[in-house]
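Students often ask what a holo structure prediction actually looks like on paper. The answer is less mysterious than it sounds. You provide the chain, you provide the ligand, and the output is a string of discrete structure tokens encoding the 3D arrangement of the protein together with zinc ion.
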Amino acid sequence: MNIDDFKTIVEIANLDFKVTNHNKKIAEQNKRVEEIKTQRNEKEQLLSHSTEKLKESQGELKSLEAKIFEVEKKLSQGEDRLTIVTSEKQLNATQTEINTGKILKESLEGQALELMEKIDFYQDENSTSKEFLDGSVSTLEEIENEVKDQVAKETKEIENLNKRIEALLETCPPLLKTPFLASRKKFKDDFSVAWAEDGVCNRCQYAVSKNDQQNINRAINVEVCMSCERILIPKSAVS
Ligand SMILES: [Zn+2]
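The corresponding structure tokens follow.
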């Protein structure tokens, strides 16, 4: 084992770091598509809810209008009867009937007005949702194409990096390769090598004995940090 072997694993750790960054970029790209899909799903749900509410309100309004029509008919019949009443008793009864009918009509008309406002609201909501859904079809397609290209580019880069990593691993002496692979498995996304400096592991600050530090820096021994379990390399391998 010599310093160049350690330099090789530092290079691999650096390449791993690049792979991680490319994977992060792929995740970011995929997130762009997911975000717009989520927005579209939300709008679809809103549209289905407002469509249902719209139908419901329109149905209610229709039956209210029928009721109002009936009340108006009775009112008009009452008005007609007023002209032919023959006694004060009949007059009073008819007048009371008309007054009650008028109050009922007013209340029904108030309810109808409220329903019409509701209908307006749901119609607006429907148009907004439909507009968004129609408009976002092409946006989604554009983004999906962009993402597909970017992901393909990143994937190609990762493939190339992995080829280089494989080739470099081939040149690693087994005594170094085995502990490095263990360290790499644990820290693939967070730099799998560390070095001893001022009596501590530079990544986790755990103590490294003077003797170990000397052996590590002379590239004699392969040591692993007792705390974070990263492989410890001579500082001079990092340049
Ligand atoms: Zn450590």
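The first strand starts at residue 193 and ends at 197.
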